[in-house]
UniProtKB/TrEMBL annotation, chains A, B:
<keyword id="KW-0479">Metal-binding</keyword>
<protein>
    <submittedName>
        <fullName>Unannotated protein</fullName>
    </submittedName>
</protein>
<dbReference type="InterPro" id="IPR008949">
    <property type="entry name" value="Isoprenoid_synthase_dom_sf"/>
</dbReference>
<dbReference type="GO" id="GO:0046872">
    <property type="term" value="F:metal ion binding"/>
</dbReference>
<keyword id="KW-0460">Magnesium</keyword>
<keyword id="KW-0808">Transferase</keyword>
<comment type="similarity">
    <text>Belongs to the FPP/GGPP synthase family.</text>
</comment>
<dbReference type="GO" id="GO:0004659">
    <property type="term" value="F:prenyltransferase activity"/>
</dbReference>
<dbReference type="InterPro" id="IPR033749">
    <property type="entry name" value="Polyprenyl_synt_CS"/>
</dbReference>
<dbReference type="Pfam" id="PF00348">
    <property type="entry name" value="polyprenyl_synt"/>
</dbReference>
<dbReference type="InterPro" id="IPR000092">
    <property type="entry name" value="Polyprenyl_synt"/>
</dbReference>
<dbReference type="GO" id="GO:0008299">
    <property type="term" value="P:isoprenoid biosynthetic process"/>
</dbReference>
């Protein structure tokens, strides 16, 4: 792979970071003017957003914008950077729902405010304070993402086009999140159901819809837009599923120093992923016994993690998921062969695809 | 008071209800197409939204729209009806944060899904399932409110004007909610702090900002708009504070059949309202003892509720809050005396003011 797309992505990432920094500085000032009690709120979102993240969603959106004929424009960078605030909402609420203690090797938002409750010697329940603050901070991040998009400085026409798509993307995200929560509460597993959740929760939201947002920002003509929307569905949907499957594997086999989560965290949480559904489908009685004993144990130690990892590998589920990721990725990359995607857009999108599905984060 | 504004408000209320019904029917279909598991989600928001509520925020917005020269327009009704979905988000998340069991005499959203968990014999923790679902349904209601506004059919120019105001309103709401959560965790009380929370959490969000939204929907010219925005700040801010103070009184003295909450619910929750801050300021040692014993006791019985009510009345705090409501309301109504507000707008806004601060709901 040439260095060129990597350099371009690094440049975009810096500009995305710059816009997020500016926006959050303005908002911190705004909240501070309402009351100094709000400074820790602004600081927590600042630190959450500025210390980590690959900026995948803004990068996919911007790459699609350029591929669809948009010219380099800082206002568009600002518009797509808003997706990071939406993602912050999803992660803050997700960590609270999953009772996760860490995110990017730091305390998750509700734990952070639990700690503040203790440090500042506040009254009442620390865990209620942490949970309530995380609910509100997620809501605030969701509203901020809207405001950052609305005030990005893109043309009125581009903004109006993007609103429809943006709303639909967010509804799909919430629907996918609910399907996931509901799945965890069912007694049976199903590969088909887990794949559908992966599609809504991550596939569409993480890749296809950001790409579509970029297309809406670039193209006014509905017929021309339709051509690119279709190409990016063909590219984005399989790639999004591959991305979620990689995430499943990292949740079980990933290195904590790169995932930012404890080893085997998804096993401890009992997360009903496609990987686990495939493991169930292939497990013999003894292997089912191991799963029944360890999967979803909140105090699972490294011995239990290893036992489950062995079952997941021995059933062939791990390899099957790796194969599926490769197959989905090849299908995705095929879609970039269309004449409408020029060489530099092709290089940028391929590089992003390889970042999305790579084995370490 | 003439019957005319009451008839007009009743008509607007029916049209608001009609638009909410239509929108939710569309969204139920949309979610059902993603997965039948999502039908209970759509039904729960339907029932939450269509079975109750005075529609105060849409009515204030529409009254301001008409007062500022807008002509009767069903698209604008649809746009302002979206405020009910934003309010649904606030209430669903609020009930979860406060661990409230009931809303409008029915189970609150998290309790409703706790019950579904039990009825459907789902696995895992019912309370975690209820809490997670309530977080996601609040998020979904917030996104729906956006979508309903965006797709209301108002002109592009009106929509673009309204976005700025709409974003600011929602940020103020979340800031006010956090200040409220934080206040509950402090060991001291303060009338000044509680008044500020009342202003952000309810005053601006419930009355001033909906009025401003109506003005933005009606007026394109910034200078003319400014005149109406100022009038409606003069009217809306004191009225909003009066509204919150009435809410404080209802939370302590209100009749459960009209509040939809158990008697003395705010006392059981230990809610740090302006009313309670004033009670603290005026209480003698014996009365402080009663407060220390009963206030915030989660299993407070009717004896404890009566003891606290007696202290709140005996200190004079109740009467003082009633006086303050009257004073704030008179200040608000004064603002309607301006030439820019014609007789029919005056009648409509006065009627709404009296609904907002009336003693029973």
């Amino acid at each position: 792979m040439s260095q060129e797309p990597q350099r371009a992505l690094a440049d975009f990432r810096i500009r995305i970071q710059g816009h997020l920094t500016d926006y959050l500085a303005q908002q911190t000032q705004y909240l501070g003017d309402i009351g100094s009690e709000l400074i820790p709120v602004a600081e927590a979102i600042n630190s959450f957003l500025l210390d980590g993240g690959k900026r995948l969603r803004p990068l996919f959106a911007y790459a699609a914008y350029l591929a669809a004929g948009g010219s380099d424009d800082d206002h568009v960078i600002r518009a797509v950077a808003s997706l990071e605030l939406l993602q912050a909402c999803a992660l803050i609420h997700d960590d609270l729902m999953d009772a996760s203690d860490t995110r990017r090797n730091k305390p998750s938002m509700h734990r952070h405010f639990e700690n503040i409750h203790a440090t500042d010697d506040l009254s009442g329940s620390a865990s209620t304070y942490g949970a309530s603050t995380a609910i509100l901070l997620g809501d605030l991040a969701l509203v901020w993402s809207d405001q950052m998009l609305h005030a990005s400085g893109i043309s009125d026409a581009a903004l109006l086009r993007s609103l429809v798509l943006h709303d639909e993307m967010r509804i799909e995200l919430m629907a996918g999140q609910f399907l996931d929560i509901h799945e965890q509460a069912l007694t049976s597993t199903s590969v088909a159901r887990s794949l559908k959740i992966a599609r809504y929760k991550s596939g569409k939201y993480t890749i296809e819809r950001p790409l579509h947002l970029g297309v809406h920002l670039a193209i006014a003509d509905p017929q021309k837009r339709k051509i690119y929307l279709d190409i990016f569905s063909e590219f984005g949907l399989p790639l999004g599923e591959a991305f979620q499957l990689r995430d499943d594997l990292l949740g079980v086999f990933g290195d904590p120093t790169t995932t930012g989560k404890p080893a085997g965290d998804d096993l401890r949480e009992g997360k009903r992923t496609v990987l686990m559904a495939m493991t169930h489908d292939r497990a013999d009685a003894r292997q089912e016994g191991v799963i029944a004993r360890y999967f979803g144990e909140s105090d699972l130690d490294s011995h239990g993690v290893d036992a489950l990892r062995t079952v997941i590998s021995d059933t062939g589920a791990r390899e099957h998921v790796e194969d599926l990721i490769e197959k989905l990725t090849l299908t995705a990359l095929d879609a970039l062969g269309r004449d409408e995607i020029d060489a530099s857009a092709h290089a940028l999108l391929s590089e992003l695809a390889s970042i999305a599905i790579r084995r370490s984060l």
